[in-house]
Write a structure and sequence with these properties.
Shape: elongated
CATH architecture of the largest domain: 3-Layer(aba) Sandwich
Number of domains: 2
Distance between the termini: 31 Å
Order of helices and strands: EEEHEEHEHHHEHEHEEHEHEEHEH
Largest sheet: 6 strands, mixed
């Protein structure tokens, strides 16, 4: 495992920011961490990075305990992009990376390739004060890549990025994953994570409410599938009756046909009920619960 947490807590007096978290993250995994503001995500990040001590519990990162002497060496193989990137406005992009490389003990030769990788090769000599918010975010990502980290912690990494930059960012993550890098990412933009993480954990009030792939979490919440049917005029009553007989759920009429919400395990029964109507069913759209639906299903 790249990361293992057992019984981890962080208390600030009566406030339990993190409250008994158990979690395993495999090497080479892109893992999402989602939750409301104040759910404990950033606190958990900082504890895994060794920036703040846990009140209790054990955290292993790269096989080293964050409380142990060996973690200083292990930390050189970690990368971190905080939610709010603070940079020196008077330095150029390249000078900024050289500054961070010296702090990390990373080779200065990695700085220009890091700029290239995040799409800032053209702006490396410009002062950071001239950078847009998205460019600053990409420069922050570049510093996280210095030292060839084996584990990357990314806290709201796409803040300020335009759609093309977001696509490029996730393409970079897939390349890093192919190199064996473990990536832990938080984001409030759940639609971004839905198709881009292998697994995720939902945090609420400092506790892990659920862990798994998006599909596994959908199945745990028992949220319905939604069918939208486009039908030929006049066929709606007969098809509605067939669907209600097959599922015991009542279809709702729409402008173009019917809408049916039913348990996931009845999907094949719905399709079987529709089959005899053949071409009289003009179109079928099936909607899975989104990650946002799943999130609220666990956190409400």
């Amino acid at each position: 495992m790249a990361i293992s947490l057992r019984g981890v807590t962080k208390h600030y007096g009566a406030l339990h920011a993190v409250d008994g978290v158990d979690l395993d993250i495999a090497r080479g995994e892109i893992f999402g961490l989602i939750g409301h503001n104040g759910a404990g995500k950033s606190t958990l990040f900082k504890m895994m990075l060794g920036l703040i001590p846990a009140t209790s519990g054990e955290i292993l990162v790269g096989g080293a305990s964050v409380r142990g002497r060996g973690f200083r060496a292990a930390r050189r193989h970690l990368g971190y992009l905080p939610e709010n990137v603070v940079l020196y406005d008077n330095l150029s992009g390249l000078e900024t990376l050289r500054f961070f490389a010296k702090l990390k003990g990373a080779p200065l030769a990695q700085c220009q390739p890091a700029l290239d990788r995040v799409g800032l090769a053209h702006a490396g000599k410009r002062p950071v004060r001239e950078y847009s918010k998205g460019m600053r975010q990409r420069l922050g990502f570049a510093q996280a890549l210095l030292g060839s980290p084996q584990v990357l912690f990314l806290d709201e990494p796409t803040s300020g990025l335009d759609p093309q930059a977001i696509r490029d960012f996730y393409a970079t993550l897939r390349g890093l994953q192919a190199e064996g890098v473990t990536i832990i990412i938080t984001s409030h933009i759940l639609a971004e994570l839905q198709e881009r993480v292998g697994r995720l954990a939902i945090l609420s009030a400092g506790k892990v409410q659920a862990v798994g792939s998006v599909q596994a979490l959908r199945e745990q919440t028992h949220m319905p599938l939604v069918f939208e049917l486009q039908l030929q005029a006049g066929d709606t009553p007969a098809i509605a009756q067939a669907l209600e007989h097959a599922t015991a759920a009542t279809p709702e009429p729409t402008a173009q046909g019917l809408r049916l919400a039913c348990p996931r395990e009845q999907k094949m029964a719905v399709l079987a009920a529709l089959a005899p109507f053949g071409a009289r069913v003009l179109d079928i759209k099936m909607h899975e619960p989104s990650l946002e639906d799943v999130f609220f299903g666990f956190s409400d």
